[in-house]
Write a structure and sequence with these properties.
7 helices; CarD family transcriptional regulator; Thrombin, subunit H; 179 residues; CarD-like/TRCF_RID_sf; disordered C terminus; 5-stranded antiparallel β-sheet; Methane Monooxygenase Hydroxylase, Chain G, domain 1; 2 domains; CarD-like/TRCF_RID; CarD-like_regulator; alpha+beta
Amino acid sequence: MTSKSGLEFKVGDAVVYPAHGVGKVAAVETQEVAGMTLEVYVVTFDHEKMTLRVPTNKAKTAGLRSLAAEDVVSRALVTLKGRARIKRTMWSRRAQEYEAKINSGDLISIAEVVRDLHRADTQPEQSYSERQLYESALDRMAREVAAANRIDKDAAVELLAKSLSAKKAPPAPAAAEAA
């Protein structure tokens, strides 16, 4: 996988890195590190104003992947419609689990966090840390849905809000589809 023609991603591809979300492959460079020659993907994340270099031969193990396919995006939207599953554990433990799901880069897991932390107008106010996690998950999910559907982030947020407001529907079919 070290030849330029055999690479999984090419310059201009939108990719997802688990800890940072959606980025774009800006270049494929050859760099010398500790006396070894490495071929790396240069991935830029405009929303974080950050550049990441991922060795091409370690991209898969690092979690670098293509945007979610249409069926995965659909399943994530169905997940949002499901009933929130909130474990009866201490908040600090749940917060760690939510953080791990967000940083997993898995769109379905991120959708579960958005679903579980979403508050309707009729529900009690969230704590600061709950709101931070919710907004982080919503932002990460919206960016990937926007990139996958070739729409802007605001349109993606609206799409997610529609799925979240559709929660009133009977949860049984959504739970069956998500499983």
